[in-house]
């Protein structure tokens, strides 16, 4: 079992299957861990009738239970085995439910980490036709004179755990146990040495399958922490668990910072196709939202594809979104947050309803701005504009291309060539040659250094506007060193 973790193997025999109505009539626990192996069991007086079906299944009759202690009488002793231990049970939801309710009755909160041996058996041996405890015992050759008694079933669980650890190997066994418990355990094909080699620095990483296929591509401010996160806390996320089970290798590339990681990831996701990741859409036009004056004088929205070519000259106020679907989703959410009427904005879809206060007052009937008592047109326009302030397009704040510098804690730095929110490459600066050297995009790529004039000419080739890059750059441009191309050489000479 996992080193440093204490496991309490538990089985209960009860008067029925409903924790809120039925009672515990037998409990057994075996404590297993580093240099620990202790057990305890007791029959309990359920203080209620025992159905004949349960008597036949377990062999426990009312006469056997007569004079036995109640759960309240043994709960303190049982707690010494359960406290700070992982609860291990076959169909653990059943046992944990009964223990949680019974302990709540005596004022204790029981919320343990849980390892279900039924789930573990299904994962480790998916080809077995049945995974009940009796079927497992038959499969592994473990025989007991009694069944459906608490300690006998605890011994059967321990036998299965020992068998699985030996049969599948320590690495595979501990990995699956760790996944259930949300512990940071490594896939069998990845060693701690592999993880230690990954820097706690910004960059991008690739999770690879057994044949080297790309499963997942991501970015991180700390590569090591982000890679490890894929192998923990995935018990409630089936996609994360499936990914963790398939990972056999990790590739990583350290970069200069979070901006660099975002720029590289955006490009890589469009060029590569990770199997277990939502496919990134091909580069397309963003969705812009124009603010116009409606017939009533109130502000309305109009959606259009792409940025207007003359937006810098006209300085028109626009909100910009990733695509039309993103725009519609965010408009509805932002309007609801600011109590702005979708009807008045002119964007209420067919069959949809507006939940603003004005529409609620009118019973959902469409009414004009003038008909809405207490609603001032000017106030509506101000609130509507404010609702979309975070998405308003900000004009490029320089008259020319700039180089934005980013450096990580290890001293590795890059200059990002940016113009009009477009990314034209990331470079290192060779002061001796007075040239920018672009980082290789692949092992086969041999980049050609360029001088500052060539960098300026590159920026004259208008790239498509990418919403992801725009949002990234908006978040970093005020916090990183930005040098216009015309000032760069002189600055570096100082």
From TrEMBL:
Domain Exonuclease span(s) in chain numbering: 6-170
Tell me the domain of life: Bacteria
One GO MF term:
exonuclease activity
Q: Where is the signal peptide?
A: none
| InterPro entries per record | DnaQ, GIY-YIG_endonuc_sf, Ribonucl_H, RNaseH-like_sf, RNaseH_sf
Q: What is its EC number?
A: 2.7.7.7
KW Hydrolase (keyword) present: yes
Do you know which NCBIfam families this protein is assigned to? dnaq
UniProt-recorded name of the protein:
DNA-directed DNA polymerase
Which organism is this protein's natural source? Zhongshania arctica
The root-end lineage is:
Bacteria, Pseudomonadati, Pseudomonadota, Gammaproteobacteria, Cellvibrionales
